[in-house]
């Protein structure tokens, strides 16, 4: 869909209409409607030299009440006359004569000049209009660059509260309600009371069944990781890679530490499902059960495609949701079609003949918070080992990769919030709802809840995880409704391969700026 | 949709309230020239003078500002030329030209109506348009307003029909107004 072909869409036409309406009014009013200011100055004949020649007209008021109004006027200081073309009016301002006049200074009581300029208010209005037009153009060109994705959770990482988790990102309908475990890997509690700020920062309705803290004791000097299946493993030995190589070359510096510096790539310009591989090499892998620790998150590619799909569903989005809700398995599979083609991160190891064999796959929905997982790798072998990661180009951002010796599987202790504040005000109703799993807490854009948990006395020796359960409903934007196209919606579901080819050029147009625009559109009260 | 209701409510409720802050004039319709037209006319500004002839007698004279002479101010009302001693004047207000602030009001209205093109951003852009547009429009409405005692009569005389003072040879009875 090129920009110009999309002009046929009514919402776009409407916005362009608004844009031109505003520009038209702006130009019309600026030039032709006399919104101006006037600066009037009186000058005595003795000071005629100081008359402001920027004044288009000169008025010469005579002692008897008559007045000359001259255009193209000039002053001759030697002859002490003013000359110009114009008219002579009597005291009642009726015209006595028209033509060219030369008026001696000594017959004039006082001169008057008027400087007319564009009003500063017009300039101020022009600035407001300019900003408004820029916003309109932005909205015309980037209707999908809007912040979205499930509840966001902020916790203390020491000096700041940072985004460390996003809950149930793939649960976009009631029937897809699910639990989600996120590692609060960078959390640094400073006391037994530990606050988690839950925000609704998107145009979505969040339905939250519970948000519990899972605390797991750490072995001395070790960490605890959770597997995609929800198993918790203690580890005291972490083996960093000594080599990382992607299509771009060496990528070790990007994945050696969980520091926000991510290994990422751009999507393919012809097929959004095009894969790439990153090869890792580890030394001194010990015998025993090991797992691959990864800190990663999605790019905005899947969010963009999700919004595009909703836009194509348009007014029939309710029907699609109803079908999904009715438990129709084929619909569910189809709705996940694009996600399946994009896929997760495949982990491969080498067999005895150095062929790459898929071992498992890891995935986590959501472009906001980086999640940390461990993926058990059975029979990896000891000594020097190579691992390959295979995934869709431009779809994943990887911050950290390491191997961990999985010492012991442990069961976490579950903590419910003991205090809940809504917009800083104590809210016992919300707290009771979050404790009672038969009820749900509904949040709307701009809502902020602070959930307080009581950690064990020796909290410093515990790893923290957040388990949330619920689902969310995306709000359908007006401009999306106007993009309704059942044929393209069907293509998304029935032929995701074709859809990923068709939308590749369109996504590439916004890919460079989509991150900045996405975060800039975050909803906050 | 709530956002659209916000825009509509803003237009019909908030916008008119904010525009009430604009300067008004009692000048007859089309009497005042625009700033451009005023360059080629030689009438005085529209003046409203509140004065006391005695401590209990309050009067208002409004019409064309004719001249300031010595201790007196000359106002040509619809009926006659009124000469008011400056000492008796409590306050005076001049409207020197038509500021055309209504144009900026329409501009603001169009701006507000264009905010649906901002999507959800209209929640911010519509109020910004209304508040800034109203402030700017109000500011423009006050551009041609001059008042006394804020300014002296000597400063204001340039807006009179006869800034040089009342011509001695002129018979006041023969003086005609703009549309007489």
Features of this protein?
heterodimer, A: 525 residues, alpha+beta, SH3 type barrels, 3 domains, six-stranded antiparallel beta sheet, 12 helices, B: 180 residues
Strand and helix order of chain B: HHEEEEEHHEH
The largest interface is:
A-B, 56 and 60 residues
Q: What would the average pLDDT of chain A be, to the nearest integer?
A: 85
Oligomeric nature of the chains: heterodimer
User: Beta-strand percentage of chain B?
Assistant: 15-25%
What distance separates the N and C termini of chain A?
Answer: 35 Å
Please outline the major beta sheet of chain A: 6 strands, antiparallel
Rg from Cα of chain B: 21 Å
Structural class of chain B: alpha+beta
Q: So what's the overall shape of chain B?
A: elongated
Mean pLDDT of chain B: 84
What is the tally of beta strands of chain A? 30
Query: Helical element count of chain A?
Result: 12
Task: Give the low-pLDDT segments of chain A.
Answer: 1-11
What's the count of strands of chain B? 6
What separation lies between the terminal Cα atoms of chain B? 56 Å
Task: Order the strands across the largest sheet of chain B as they lie in space.
Answer: 4-3-2-1-5-6
The Cα radius of gyration of chain A reads: 35 Å
The main pleated sheet of chain B reads as: 6 strands, antiparallel
Strand content of chain A: 35-45%
The tally of helices of chain B reads 5
